[in-house]
């Protein structure tokens, strides 16, 4: 698994592209500058890893566009040692960005093939999430909550109630909502019962599906 000066150069260019597209959080940009995205992809896609594009990762799923990863990560407003719940581990690239930003990451994946592949890959890259789970993210991870922030990386038809319940007061839930096209939605928990809602543009994700596979 190689990371070369050429890859670093391509990453620097990707970071400039993300800045031009409006990403301003320097810790997000710094994480993207450091993480070898090509090593999260199958060899046939590695040459294109630093384009702002999604790619197949197996089991009918895709790694998100770098812009989408950056946009969602920025919305979480992560502070060091924040406890973050991620729904949809997939390739582990988003997990790696959050870990590199200093968060304690708990991530759930419902496809066993991807869960196993990514559980093996991350330690090899020196990325250490707190906990990776094979399970159904609709349920969240009640035994590990509540969380400072929650990120959902698949398109959800509605906001799963357990995720709202597992968010700390003041916490942020970032979730793409909708069937064919998703509206990036940010919920900020104001108190036990009230959430402030912000809608932040359209994106396209693979669907959030129920149950394990
Ligand atoms: N963050 C990942 C995104 C992968 S795509 C990356 O950049 O690689 C979304 C992922 O969510 C897929 O791996 C899919 O299997 C997973 N997923 C879909 N529904 C889920 C659910 N209910 N619980 C957990 N993971 C789910």
UniProtKB/TrEMBL annotation:
Give the main location: cytoplasm
Q: What does UniProt list as catalytic?
A: 64
Q: Which UniProt keywords apply?
A: Cytoplasm, Methyltransferase, S-adenosyl-L-methionine, Transferase
Pfam family of this protein, just one? PCMT
The record's listing under InterPro entries reads: PCMT (IPR000682), SAM-dependent_MTases_sf (IPR029063)
Which reaction is catalysed here? Answer: [protein]-L-isoaspartate + S-adenosyl-L-methionine = [protein]-L-isoaspartate alpha-methyl ester + S-adenosyl-L-homocysteine
A GO CC term assigned to this protein in UniProt: cytoplasm
Q: Which family does it belong to?
A: Belongs to the methyltransferase superfamily. L-isoaspartyl/D-aspartyl protein methyltransferase family.
What this protein is called in its record is Protein-L-isoaspartate O-methyltransferase
Q: Which organism is it from?
A: Flavobacterium seoulense
- Gene name of the record: pcm
